Amino acid sequence: MYWPVGAPKAYALSKHATSSSTAEQSEDSLHERHNGATEDASEQTADTEKNAIATGTTTNGVHNAQEQNASDIENHILAARPSRNGQMFATITRTAVTAWQARPVVALAAVIRSVKSMQAYGPNVDLLVRPDGTVIIVQTALGYLITYTLTTESNTQIYRTQLPESSRHSRRSSTADGSSSYARNDGFPEPGAASSSGIREAMLRFRMVIRIDAGISKALALDDALLVATQKPAAMQYIRWATEEGTPQTSTELLGRLSWYTSSGSISDMVHDRPMNVLCWIADDGSAYAVQRRQAREQQPNAQNPVFSGFCFRQPADEHDLAIKTAINARFSLIAVGSTTGRIDVYVVKDYSGNIPFSHDHQLPIATSITGDLVQLIYSPDGHCLFAGFEKGWAMWSVYGTALANSFAAESEPTSSNDEKWLLGVRSAFWLGNGCQLAIVAPRDDRIWMLDVARSAATGCLSPPNVSKGLLYTGSTIILYKGQDTSDLSALSSDASLLETTQVPKHYSIAQWPVRTAAISPDDKYVAVAGSRGLAHYSVVSGRWKTFDDPAVEDQFVVRGGMCWFQHFLIAAVESGSKYYLRAYSREKTLGRPLYEEELSAPVILLTMSGHDSLLVYTYDNFLLHYIVAISGSSVKLVQVGQIGFHGIIRAPPRVRAISWILPEDQLEHGDPSQDVARATVLFLVDGKLVLLQPSSNERGELKYDMRVIAQNVEYFILQRDQANALAAPDTIDTTPNNELGGGLGHSLRDSLWYFDGDCYHVWSDIHDVLASAPNELGRDLPATVRVPVDFYPVSAMVSKGIVNGLDTELVQRRDVNFSFFRHLTRTQLFLPRLLRHHLAEYNSPAALHLASSYQDLPYFAHALEILLHDVLDSEVDSPPTPPETALLPTVVSFLSSYPAYLDVVVNCTRKTELRSWRTLFACLPPVQQLFEQSLELGKLKTAAGYLLVLHALEQDQEGLQVYEFARLLCRAASEQDWELCGELARFLVGIDGSGDALRSVLAQSGLGNGQNGSVVPQMPGHAQGRAARGSIAALVNPQAAQRQVDYFSLGVDS
């Protein structure tokens, strides 16, 4: 669901910035350095450093690869770390530490260490940033931790965004009397609650120096403390930021005293995840541990209950399979572990008592000898993408293993000549802008490369239109897939022009960057986006955006819980202050006060439309609210008609990613909406589990739900009932381009359920079959799904067209530009053959015929049948069924004979299969001679020619040639002036008999020419003889020979 787009932007500090700036050297409080240190803690000094502040010290510059000197090594960035909210990040070089703002990317403050400090503490080797971004910690080579405090001056600004005259946008703001005036006409947004206009002055102040006598193996900056893994002895030190009364500031836990820690060495890598409250340790011996820290216990040296509790969930299989890097994905409850083999194993966290089984793995696109060692492993903020940085490149996967992009396809020559080190390896990497940007620091480089990333709208709001329409967005643009609006044939094209990019208004993008969520309407007419505050919406038809006239109103609320469209009304879940609302806006009116507003008791997790007019709202207090959207003229109202509490069923509401429900047909069409909650079967997507909740009654007649997990590792799902026009089923096929789920489908896929698990689509053709097998008391297995493998990431399934569409990325390197860039390629694949094969394998030919009848008017329907035949034939040739009576091929051939394209499908299949497969195929068919006669009778001359070639191949061991059949076909082709076919037949006859006797015999039999001197002239009633009319067969076989007046059939003898 993540795809890099375009070329990255490079940011670097100018080479001579330090000599012309106000940055001063810092001695890091050496004048107050104490002698000695405590055993478990460190040397700590007061905040007495002088001249450690650098404000606005550096400027953005462009790296000049031609200037190389000894100071370049000092400028190479060694590490980079962001704050939790992604608003700032810090970098270190060997001698300096710099604080940056993320948007726009500028260096705010820097500290350059003095020579005396370098000699005393050693050069910088690693970097930590406290999650809130207020403390920066530098780890040195001699085992010291130097801490700095980052502060900002709210009243002082050092930069201000200024737009050019051509892009300035005037916005009306509402006055107290209701009239309108114009604001923000100076080209930059006014400072507001959520606006980042203007860059405030920042200062880095020295805080303290911490000496770790035992040696630093790995360190982490947590919200309340520093966590340091030491080497000798192997221990874990916990150093609080602030001392609490009655609690020591520093505590130490020896790893050897932990009964569950079976490794002999120290910790080489560790990460912490706050939502899951889990640490993951990687030991020196390659083992991986899941760890929790107890929050409250008596701090006694010999306490029986240790501070840390955990267990080993991965041990190396051999000495070449050592774990080296790890990452935690709280959104999907996963832990990824990278090993020395280059493979990345992913484990699912089911509980905190040690139940962490293996889930799946991520395979490298190339050999580890080319990629180098794994350097960094990080999940995107929403957990949908895994980024792995290697010594010689990088790669990205979806959460469950689909390869999305990598840099290993880069050509070495242009990459080196353009000095694009971001393609050649990773030193450090991190996400910014809620996942819309990826920052990469390459080895031996002083630049930070910012690569824009496009995401599926389903990552932020997994609603049915977002999934089915393939909407993408970046931090400041939306990308629409236009294949839905094209003809069926063009939908199969991999034309990049099917993607249409639209820029979000600049004033909104500047003030509210990045775009955090987006929603498209079911009819593709409208798109809404929401940034850090406020929202904006766009009309695809008119190409116009609408934003709030008053920036103050825009800054008053945050969209939290998603958005959805109902006709031209936008419904959004918002948070304003400490209150939570459902609001409705009209596309036809200016954005200002909502048309409708309803306050809620708890924040919204997600909302979605279901059925004709039902709105489902799931909240943090574990309630599912059911509303009916009532429209009266130009106004709209949400009427609550029911709610369901899931207490005791869903333990962690924030882990719910999507929701829908299935109503019985009678309730959907004629039932009371207030009774929907009692009769609906609810679908939840919790982490990667698709959960089905079916209503029933207990002994006292009270409503209860039977829960069953029906799928694992689900990235997203599509319930076709929720798609536009799915509930209407006219009798004829709607062939208009915008028909997404045409009526011709009837009930064949109207009730289908699709989900993607990172490997392929899984399809249940009828969800009612799943509902009938789901109750646990029945003890039934769920019906098997139909697997639709894809070699790209599928964005959606266009059911009316019978295809799956998706995206792929391509790294473009051209000689006419001096940079590389990523571009998106649209990909499509037919899913119809897989579904037909499933029905036929289940001996359900009526279902296959019914499904095929919905698609038989598509121009590529015959191609779908050909794929079906080809797949079945290949599988049965490679693995003959035992016993033979179970073969599927005869059933498929019988099914194909029901369609007019049957003869063409069979002969086209033979052209794409090996000769050894022909006998297996035609053993299930009528005699080839009969198929030839049928094709000739129907006027399908090229099809008949194909069968004639098959006939010759299957009977070539017999004496003689099918002269009569070739003559009939050649005569028929000549009579219809199909000279291309005549030439093909002539070339074939010459190919099997170089003497020309076979061709002469056929020509004599057909009466198309005489054999004098080998001259062959078509003779047709009503046409002049000779080469004056259409040319000779010789010209068709070899036009160049005809131009030289050489008789091809005289075997090179000039005429």
TrEMBL record:
GO terms for cellular component: cytosol; Golgi membrane; Ric1-Rgp1 guanyl-nucleotide exchange factor complex. Residues 834-1007 form the RIC1 C-terminal alpha solenoid region domain. Residues 173-184 have a biased composition (Low complexity). It is found in: Membrane. Residues 28-37 have a biased composition (Basic and acidic residues). Pfam families: Beta-prop_RIC1_2nd, RIC1. One of its GO terms (biological process) is retrograde transport, endosome to Golgi. Coiled coil: none annotated. The keyword Membrane applies. InterPro entries: Ric1 (IPR040096), RIC1_C (IPR009771), WD40_repeat_dom_sf (IPR036322). Keywords: Membrane. Residues 12-47, 160-195 are annotated as: Disordered. This is WD40 repeat protein. It comes from Recurvomyces mirabilis. The gene is RIC1.
